[in-house]
Amino acid sequence: MNVDLTALIEAANRAPSVHNIQPTRFRFDDERTITLLEDTSRRLLVGDPEGKDNQKSLGAAFEGLMLALAARGLGGEVQKLKGDGDLRETICVRIATGGVSDAFEPITRTRASYRGAFAKPNDVDHAALAQISEACPDLHIVEGPDALQHIARVFDDASMEVLRAPAYRAELLSWMRLSPKHPRYERDGLNAAHMALSPIEALGAGVVLGPKAFPLLDSVGLAEPLISESGKVRSAAGVALFHRPVEETEFETGRRFYRVWLEVERAGLALCPMSVLADVPRVAQGLLRENAIGADRKLVTAFRIGRRPQGWNQPPRARLPVDELIVKAA
Ligand SMILES: Cc1cc2nc3c(=O)[nH]c(=O)nc-3n(C[C@H](O)[C@H](O)[C@H](O)COP(=O)(O)O)c2cc1C
Fold it and tell me: Which structural domains are found in the chain, ordered by start?
């Protein structure tokens, strides 16, 4: 079996990961066995203390790997692992023949988070949302100005709630690359271009989220208007509440996370996750209740969805080089 392992890893690592931390590492145990490991040193200890988002990110990378294998006519026998330590073994894939190419695979090449304001929604966008809703029963789509205004307000309030913790802001800032001069700008984290921030806005974001300015601005009611993403939420064609069975593992949820995202892009639309809506339990429960989503479901995140404006230039993907993702077999 002749497989270009570097190309496989590059494809797997196109998957989304929380804050673009890219926690998945790959080990080749022999020429047809790949083990995926979690680099626990990249966990968000404040924002994700239980490592749930890491597990979702690993699930997404695994889905990316399986899509890449299928595109080469390959599949794999899969074995779940329960590793520990700094590099935790998560899953092992023994590559085999017989994979069937998946229509999503080509979309992995262009999928990207879109964090700007959307183009004014038209009938085609709403029809695309209906198509997505049909294809994905785990996306509950909310449309209409009043409903979007409500979610925008809940999102800003929930964002403020988490941002008031200095440790949360410090951790977020540590993954932001606000200037192209940042040494990791093209490697990982959230860079200014991907956050759709102009140089001035990026500078401002660094100041507003800083340890001194934020409490001061908050005390005079200025922090919320400065961090508000309300306009971006209201510009969306709709918001999709992504819900999964409560008992599903975070890893499996992550696989699905990637596939619904690819479904949105296949329909010609773009999205930005708003995970804070799921991270604050009271807020998540409120949204599930208001939308009559059953108690046997968990809110994974909410996606604001719309069309990228004409002329939007997608910045190059920020990713670690493949050789840094490979762990040597013992
Ligand atoms: C579990 C998970 C949660 C995420 N939550 C958010 C979020 O709340 N806000 C956001 O802007 N992006 C969020 N993202 C998207 C990542 O930041 C994004 O995938 C990463 O920066 C890589 O960029 P790309 O999607 O353009 O490849 C999330 C991704 C994952 C896997």
Answer: 5-109 (3.40.109.10), 123-306 (3.40.109.10)
Residue 12 has pLDDT above 90, yes or no: yes
Integer Cα distance of 235 and 119 in angstroms:
7
Decide: 18 in ligand 1 pocket, CB within 6 A. yes
- Long-range CB contacts (within 8 A, 24+) of 146-150: 147/239, 148/233, 148/234, 148/236, 148/238, 148/239, 149/230, 149/234
Nearest C-alpha to atom 17 of ligand 1 is from which residue?
19
- Write the residue with the smallest CA distance to atom 18 of ligand 1: 16
Percentage with pLDDT > 90 across the chain: 95
C-alpha of residue 96 to centroid of ligand 1, in Å: 31
d(CA 325, CA 99): 25
> Which among 58, 63, 113, 244 is the best mutation to test ligand 1's pocket, defined by most ligand atoms within 8 Å of the CB?
113
- With a CB cutoff of 8 Å and minimum separation 6, the contacts of 317 are 14, 112
- 252, 59 in Cβ contact below 8 A? yes
- How does pLDDT run across 259-313, given as a tens digit for each residue? 999 999 999 999 999 999 999 999 999 999 999 999 999 999 999 999 999 999 9
Residue 272 CA to ligand 1 centre (angstroms): 7
Say whether pLDDT at 65 is over 80: yes
| pLDDT single digits (tens) 126-141 | 999 999 999 999 999 9
Candidate of 10, 13, 14, 17 to mutate for ligand 1, largest count of ligand atoms within 8 Å of Cβ:
17
Q: pLDDT digits over 68-87, tens only?
A: 999 999 999 999 999 898 99
The pTM of the full predicted model, rounded to 2 decimals, is: 0.97
| C-beta 113 within 6 A of ligand 1 | yes
Ligand 1 within 6 A of CB of 53: yes
